[in-house]
Specification:
The protein is an all-alpha fold. The protein has helices at 2-8, 11-33, 39-66, 76-82, 89-111, 118-131, 134-140. It has one domain (2-140). It contains seven helices and no strands. It is globular. The chain starts with a helix and ends with a helix.
Length: 141
Amino acid sequence: MRYFDFLFNNDLLKVLAICIVLDTIFGVLRAIKQKKINSNIGIDGIIRKVGMLTSVIFFALIDVILELNLIGFIPDEVRKAINLESVGIASLFNLLFIIFESLSILKNMIKCKLPIPKRLQTLLENIFNKFTEELKESEEK
């Protein structure tokens, strides 16, 4: 019973679900805008997102059974900013997946040419160009 309470009252899991939905919407909009609708890419994305949710749910079960607390791995400033008292494996992966999905949302917004503040867009484009090849590939085509 503790496990289901943990899952249904987990704000990070709710945020991850919202990020996954937003990333999917922006990914579809990007595919429509670029006229590159591809079911294989869509299926791969769905598999990845289901894998993320499945792993977080599995790690939540481990957290409830073992009562792990990895709070020492999170800097104090971050802990205070997001109001965390304990961090289990599920929370740690949840935070990583939220960051991953958020970056993907921002990348899709840039590729859809949505109005983003110029300084933020420049910063994000520099980061994406430095660490990924995806923005470069779309500009070349």
